[in-house]
Amino acid sequence: MRNTGKILLGLAGLFAVGAIVGALYAPDKGERTRRRIARNGRWIFHTATDAIEEGKDNLQALRDRIKDDLEKVDEEIDRLSRCRTNA
Hints:
The chain is 92% helix and 0% strand. With 87 residues, it is mainly alpha-helical. The chain has one domain (3-86). Helix 1 packs antiparallel against helix 2 (30-86). It is rod-shaped. The two termini are 47 Å apart.
């Protein structure tokens, strides 16, 4: 995950903690407070799930790019070894 992703995830976590603490100290009824906490919890879960999926996609793209680069290096080594053998 890039630094921007880490910062956004950290800010989302701080926002959620602040919302939960604020909800606990708010002068609302318990049922309303519990609903608010549950809603924020679901939001955090979905945000984290999206961030994890994006991280998986980024890692898959990186893996594919490295695999392609290694194949190119392997082909170049084969080409150079053939040139050396023919010389």
